[in-house]
Amino acid sequence: MKARLQRAFETIGWAGTALLLVLFGLYQGIQQQVLTVELLWLSLQVVWLDALSASLVFTGFLLFTGLLLLHEVSTPATDVTEITDGPELTAIIPVYRDANVLHRSVDSLRESTYENLEIVIACEPDDETTIATAEAMADGDPMVSVLHNAYPGSKAGAIQTAIERSESDAFAVFDADEIVDESFLASGMGALYAEGYDVFQGRRIPEPTGLVETLAYCERVTFHASYKLVEVTGFRNCRSSSTVVTREAYEAVGGYDDLLTEDLAFAHKCYRHDLAVRQARNYTSLMEAPHTLTDFWGQRKRWRIGQVEVLHATLMGRLTGGIRHRRWISLSRMITSIGGSIFLLVLLSKLSVLVLADATLFYLLPILATALIAAGVGWADASAGDIDAVAPIVLVAPLVYPVFGMLMLKSILEYALSWDGRWYHVEKTGA
Questions:
Q1: pLDDT score recorded for residue 34
Q2: Burial tier of 172 (Cβ tally within 10 Å: 0-12, 13-18, 19+)
Q3: Number of H helices and number of E strands within the chain?
Q4: Residue 78 gets which letter from DSSP?
Q5: 3-state secondary structure of 281
Q6: Distance from the CA of 324 to the CA of which of 47, 207, 214, 338 falls in 20 to 30 A?
Q7: How far apart are CA 317 and CA 220, in angstroms?
Q8: 174, 180 Cβ separation under 8 angstroms
Q9: Structural domains present in the chain
Q10: Would the pTM count as exceeding 0.90?
């Protein structure tokens, strides 16, 4: 009964807040329309500075960052020095209930052009089905081995277990459902040992095979586009997938934390410690996308809750260390990312008054820009053979922004109501 009441309160809270934000934006626009009658010249100036300028600025932002992303993904994946025979590299695949997709990552890594490679599948001790599948893949293949997570219940623990049991000085981390480019590891090792980087990060994209899957793909495009603006501060998103890192760098930041979004925390720690991160979005790994709206919503909500948790952990002093001014920039990045997602609801509702002002074109500009960038990056990915031909359903890309806002509101409220003084830890009960 208590859980039901909490869920009801959460739903009413986030939905009510989202509605209030939308109404606030509309109210501002309506008030400006009233002023149009009373003080024509002044109100027109206000409208121009508010709704029209917001439309133009937002559109400019989308086009600028989108074109930067398009340029990056279109650059031939030969701009990094490749090393095919170098120090031993351990590719780690943390898995849980991944028996049906594990072949994607293992098979693609077997085709890697990097020769001195071992593949370690890190399983949860209670996941018998995946363990059996992993052991079958390792049987007769000296390149592949299987271990059990010594810190059950978290991806961070699985990675840590593999690193503790390996003698390698370089590691790569992948999800079970990734199809990895054959030259990715060679380029990653080249970036680390020939070019002096600490971390090499590729790009993962969901396979846009249907409507929901395409929505997930478009979300990735908008995310990566927004990251381009953040990168002017030197911040790079280091993940716990499609990532190559030296042992020295991993240990310098304390590895991955046992948090819901351990990769986001890792990225901020790398930034605060001024590690050299090579972002290479022209190296693309394919991953499975959610196949239903329920799965899409649930997965993205977990990510947003994890985002809130990382901010909370930082404010509580759990995630510390690094260069002082970078710690402040890192914190600002967390706050603006969360606040910006929420503000999208206000911005989008405010822009709707342009329709009332008979300025529909300016209202459509951000929508068209979003769809154009999604289509452009999709065309580049299709041309590279990473995905099939771009489907017209990339026009769903603008739906990503209101989803961002609603998800973030729900995640903040859910986190605030459910946090009991203990940091996130996965509770698993078997396959």
A1: 45
A2: buried
A3: 15, 7
A4: T
A5: strand
A6: 338
A7: 30
A8: yes
A9: 2-74+337-418 (no CATH), 89-333 (3.90.550.10)
A10: no
